[in-house]
Amino acid sequence: MGEDAGDRGPSADSLAPVGLPMSETSPKAEAAKLLPFLALGERADLQAAAAQHVLALTGSGPGRTLLAGQAALLRALVELAMAPPPAPARDAARALVNLAADPGLHKPLLAAEPRLPVRLLGCALDPQWPWAEEAAAVLANLSREPVPCAALTEALAAAEPGESGLERLVRALCTPGYNARAPLHYLGPVLSNLSQRPATRAFLLDRNRCVVQRLLTLTQYPDSSVRRGGVVGTLRNCCFEHRESWWGCCLMGGIGCSLGPLWTGLHSCFSPGHHEWLLGPEVDILPFLLLPLAGPEDFSEEEMERLPIDLQYLPPDKQREPDADIRKMLIETIMLLTATAPGRKQVRDQGAYLILRELHSWEPEPDVRVTCEKLIQVLIGDEPERGLENLLEVQVPEEVEQQLQQQDHQEREQCEREQQELELGPGPQAEEAAST
């Protein structure tokens, strides 16, 4: 997903085991010997052994660094990854997944094959390509960085007349069985990364295309947290216009009960006109954001009537979203929708506080609980004074902004301490042994 660009993305480990162990010769010599056997037209069994050795190299930092300096080998790996059977394209594609997971290797990869994003896109969207999931995973890693993301955006814009490239990507993501041999879960993070760019958000928010409505049902997609997280990240990005990055904004820092002076840095990176549409009956986004956060709580009749129909009388086995990062993104998305007075009113009127109150009591992750607290404070806090209703237009004094940043830093440190205490605490077996 596009928000954590500093971390390594999906690796081949998440798709399948890495290749065979390397022999005891030096890695540099091993890499030099592999190149001829990766060539198209070589015997399939030799290609397979060579591809497995390259895959093993990509499983370590030193191995990836070594391969980064082998332009010819990288070109051969790309060609092999896109070759038809019996070529070992799958292992070659997994090696590219590992290489693309390291942002420092994007430049040598693109230097070796400048059209890599375009070619991967063709594989990922080909309903007959058996390794389309691997191609999508490489794209998910590459598109986390600005240069490859821009190249991919251009490739999508230059697609064939008729159905646009982005439309094909969304259709592949939203259509069950689009590729019978590849689940295409990683198209979710690809779309999330692309939605950091204004052109993609303009497409997603085009009211005549109904793209957002098609994505909403995937917020509860049961078979893949990768797909769910990518879709939630996309929806979050659609709720604001980027200036630099999500984390550069002060939205999540220091929100108290008096709201006016505490929102900063967003007035130049946000388009509030879309919020009424997203919250209104044409899209009705809020129930899709709240439902994954809801548990099996039994509300009073009065409280139940305040909730949207889809959130009323949930079954006793209703489970919350199990992924903490996705829960946090859902809360952040709702937070963005409360940036204006009409947005806050709509979120309040649909009983969001009730769901968030129960979530806060249940939430085991300290940083998610803090984010939930801040949204609750927005919903129960006093409205800003007249003229300051649009919190995105409030000018925050520099000293106040510094205080908020310091407070946010302290809260993050506190969350880290609480998390460490949870991880270091005695488990049930240790407690039981101590009592006996």
Q: Mind explaining what this structure looks like?
A:
With 436 residues, the chain is mostly helical. It has 23 helices and no strands. The longest helix is centred in the last third of the chain and has 27 residues, at 398-424.
Helix and strand arrangement:
Layout: H1 27-38, H2 44-57, H3 61-68, H4 71-81, H5 89-100, H6 106-112, H7 116-124, H8 132-142, H9 146-157, H10 165-174, H11 187-194, H12 198-204, H13 211-216, H14 225-238, H15 273-279, H16 286-290, H17 301-306, H18 324-337, H19 341-349, H20 352-362, H21 366-380, H22 398-424, H23 428-435
Structural class: mainly alpha
Uncertain parts:
1-6, 16-24, 241-270, 427-436
On the 0 to 100 scale, the average pLDDT is 82
What fraction, in percent, of the residue positions are helical?
A: 55-70%
Give the biggest beta sheet. none
> Can you count the helices?
23
Order of helices and strands: HHHHHHHHHHHHHHHHHHHHHHH
* Counted beta strands: 0
Radius of gyration: 24 Å
Shape: elongated
Percent strand equals under 5%
- First CA to last CA: what distance? 47 Å
Oligomer type: single chain
